Amino acid sequence: MRRGRQILAAIILLAVMCACRETTAFATEPDAAEQTEELSEEQKAEQAAYEMKVDSNDWKNWPQGPGTYGEAAIVMEVGTGAILYAKNIDSHQYPASITKVLTALVAMENGQLEDPVTFSHDSVAFLKPGDSSVGLKEGNQISLEQALHATLLASANEAAYAVGESVGINAGHDYNWFMEQMNIRCRELGGENSNFANTNGLHDENHYTCARDMALIGRELFKHPDFFRIVQTLNYAIPASETVEEHIFQQKHKMLIPENSNYYPYAIGGKTGFTSDALSTLITMADNGGMQLVCVVLRTHGVHIYPDTAGLFEYAFNNFGKVPVADYESSKDVGEILEDGSCNYVMLPQSVKFEDLDMELVPDGGISSEATLQYTYEGNPVGSARCTLSDSYKDEHSAKVTAAKKEKKPKDDGQKKGKTKKMAVACASVVLAILITIFISVIMRRSRIRKRRRRR
């Protein structure tokens, strides 16, 4: 009996020891250094991009935004231009095919959708194997609307070139003029870190932009309903005609395709991009019924472009809201907030109060009694409003102007008196010099006469 118990105890002890050994083996993991060594180069690049600093997270009381696998990202509110999320937003990056949204903007501003677009030799000869194309050929002629569908949906590089060339020619210029307009338009919108060398985004060392500049371009596109009608199209066909064969193509932006797992219900437009130098790029516009946003992500590693964009939209929609200026502005210089089509609100998170903002009052020129109120937080614009100037401001301003005139007048009179006195002294000096000269001449003449008389 005792022996049986000893044997049973030995068996139990052995089982426990084996279990502990298995548990210990399962729980043991390599240290961080070993893990890093096991990561592929691409995984290391993804991790490094994700760990890059999110600049807006350093703004006082600003909601902490998510990391992204892109090296640059921005979320901008359309009405105010307020930047809600910022990561490396001014660094130069290659845009790839999201260039085509600027091509579309300049084309719509300088042409009509029914204008002809003709495919020249130059518009197709540059294509290389693997370049995105729908197969349009030299001599084909389609409308600008059809060409923009090919440019924005199928990302057809030959269509983007033909759009720039034809719009330029139709305006009495050429392709180079259209390229100049792209760069001029970007600067007019506030872009300071871009240079566009082509209309399609194929790699060029001198073709670059930044997240902020692309967001400004996307914001401007909200003024063009035709852009959104085109980019929301899921399937499109250019019908066969005497000058072109039929071409059929589909939407590529997965956040706009309801059947796709990356579909985002608030997405209303955008453009995809990719080259081996630019990596994945994406510009997306969203509207949840209360807020319109533009999100740009550049140089995204891996397959994170759509999840990153969706995460940034959710961050913005969940953390920010519109604060009406009329409800909070109490400056004695402001009469009333005008409803003249301007946004008249600021974009703020709940953690930042209206009184935390800096406000600059910019009066209209001349004798106008209206002004613009510009609001910033931590140096970043968050909104603006139009207003009338209060009576106290106008009285105070009028008094300052009058006082300035009074101070200026004596000074001017004094200057005039000083100038007059100097002129009088100068004139007197000239007269005296003339008199002295005459006096000396007379004396010398008399002296010569006396000498002659003596000789006689």
TrEMBL record:
Enzyme superclass (EC): hydrolase
Which GO annotations describe the biological process of this protein?
Answer: cell wall organization; peptidoglycan biosynthetic process; proteolysis; regulation of cell shape
Domain named Peptidase S11 D-alanyl-D-alanine carboxypeptidase A N-terminal: residues: 70-299
Family, per entry: Belongs to the peptidase S11 family.
Q: Provide the transmembrane region boundaries.
A: 423-444
Q: Does the keyword Membrane apply?
A: yes
Q: According to the UniProt entry, what is the EC number of this protein?
A: 3.4.16.4
Tell me the PROSITE patterns matching this sequence.
PROKAR_LIPOPROTEIN
Provide the residue positions that the database annotates as binding substrate: K271
Matching InterPro entries: Beta-lactam/transpept-like, Peptidase_S11, Peptidase_S11_N
Q: State the UniProt keywords alphabetically.
A: Carboxypeptidase, Cell shape, Cell wall biogenesis/degradation, Hydrolase, Membrane, Peptidoglycan synthesis, Protease, Signal, Transmembrane, Transmembrane helix
Asked if the Swiss-Prot or TrEMBL record annotates the protein with the keyword Signal, the reply is yes
Spell out the protein name for this chain: D-alanyl-D-alanine carboxypeptidase DacB
User: Where does the record place the catalytic residues?
Assistant: S97, K100, S155
Q: Name one GO molecular function term.
A: serine-type D-Ala-D-Ala carboxypeptidase activity
Highest taxon, organism lineage: Bacteria
Where do the record's region annotations for Disordered lie? Answer: 399-419
Protein source organism: Clostridium scindens (strain ATCC 35704 / DSM 5676 / VPI 13733 / 19)
Leader sequence residues: 1-27
